[in-house]
Structure formats: structure tokens, C-alpha cells
Amino acid sequence: MIVTYQSFEEFPGWDKAPELFKSLIAEYLSKCILEVGSGANPTLPAGSILENDLSYVTSDLSLTELEKADPVFQRVVLDLSAKAIDPSLTESFDCVLSRMVGEHICDGRQFHQNIYKILRPGGISVHCFSTLWSLPFAINRLLPDPITDRLLNRFAPRDEDLHGKFKAYYSWSRGPSKKMIRRFEMLGFEVIRYNGYFGHQYYRPRLPWLQRMEDWKSRLLLKHPVPQLCSYAMLVLRKPHSLSDSSPSSIRKQNEDAACSTHS
Predict the structure, then answer these.
(1) How far is 161 from 40, CA to CA, in rounded Å?
(2) 102: left (phi > 0), else alpha (psi -120 to 50), else beta?
(3) 194 or 140: whose pLDDT is higher?
(4) SS3 content of the chain, % helix, strand, coil (to 5)
């Protein structure tokens, strides 16, 4: 297990996400991939899917959004926080990805339990998400939506059509504390990598003096990490082949040999 701490500027959940996902897909020889909540805009470009001969499924709660996706992507309406999911999805994927979705899941335990079910033995899941208890995200969680909507529009205005604001619950969205690591291990996962990121830039446009304090706090936390105070995290989990065989070489070999099912 690798646990590291970095500045939020190194967080791979934004522009660096395609390279992160491509590198892990290549490292584990994954061929059948599900991206959670990606709708019409999966993280990897269509050309990359064709070039690497991948079966890449984009999922969403909205069929309307999915219908906008490039035809190279398979599409499935899916709620992985539901108590029951389609049994045909069991052990269907080598890799499950999500980007800035985890904080919007209302039941983190159920979400990751379902991912465990749909992963093949040796499969990995990769998640980039914001975490609770960094001040802006704590406010987002604790205050009523109309207030947080106004605050977001003031400090980080965005195109509502492209980047709408969704309800954030922060269930299991935390930094790499021992408690969180145990939670994932108790579900059966092996925690491969858990990176925490300190800081943010929400104060920069309107409150530069407060941003300077935030930057100072982040530098201090990098020297003396407190996982509960992370702003973002990146998590890589693996479903072992068995209790006796979870070596990386065996896992990659099984992913290479496995045939992908098609879900549309």
C-alpha cells in the first residue's frame, strides 16, 4: 500500500485524469472498463478507446445524458449506490473508474460493495473525489442547498449546463486515515494507493488574504499530514483473486486472459 500527501495542484481528478486512467488501465492490462457517472462525457477520448481496443462503458442515472455519448462507448443506466443492481453485471469489469463522483454518493458502503461485486477477481477501482472537513466542502455538506448554490456562484462561478451543482453527501469521501483504510479492507479490497491532497483555491478570486492563510495551512499540513483535513483524495483498490493469490503478476495475467461482456 502506498499512502502519500501532496498539494491540491497535483490532484489528478481534473486535467490529469485521462493520463492517470490510461496509465492504470495499461498497468493492469484492463480491457473491460466501467466509468461511473460519466454520462455523455467519459474521461477517455473515443480515439483512445479504439486505439487500445477497449470495451468502455459509460454510466449515468440519466438515459438522456447517455444518449449524447459517442457511439464508441457502451452505455448503461446505473446507480451503484442502490441496494440491488442488475445481477448480469456481476464480475463483468476489469476496472471501475470514477472522477468527482464519490462525494455525491449518499451511501459509500453500498457504492463500494456494489463495485466489489461487479469487478472481476484481480480487477481494480480508481476514484478521484473531494473530501469532507476541508472548510468549503464542510460548508457544502452542512448548509442548505440554496445557500451553498449562492456561495458557489460567488466564489467559483461555472456554466450550469456543463457543470451543474449536484447534492454532495461525502459518505466515505475522506482522506487516507487508518479508519478509512480499514473500511475498504473490511469489504474485501486490497488498498493499493491512497493519496491525500491539501489545499484549494476557492478563496483566491474574492478573498486573497484568506487564500494566503489557506496556502500557509496547506504547506504546514504537507510537513505534518492530518488525513482528516485533506481537500481531495485519489484511491486505487483491488479485488484479490483469492486469499492466497493476489500478486500483481497473477492479477494482470487474469485480466489479460479474460473476455469482456457487452452491456448496452
Answers:
(1) 13
(2) alpha
(3) 194
(4) 35, 20, 40
- C-alpha span between 237 and 127 (Å, rounded): 9
Cβ proximity of 99 and 33 under 8 Å: no
CATH architecture label of 2-129+170-198+232-257: 3-Layer(aba) Sandwich (3.40)
Full-model pTM: 0.85
Look at strands 190-198 and 232-238 and give their pairing.
Answer: antiparallel
Do residues 90 and 62 make contact, with C-beta atoms less than 8 angstroms apart? no
CA distances from 46 to 37, 72, 196 (A): 17, 6, 30
DSSP 86: -
Mean pLDDT of 112-120: 98
Average pLDDT along the chain: 88
Domain residue extents for the chain: 2-129+170-198+232-257
pLDDT of residue 257: 54
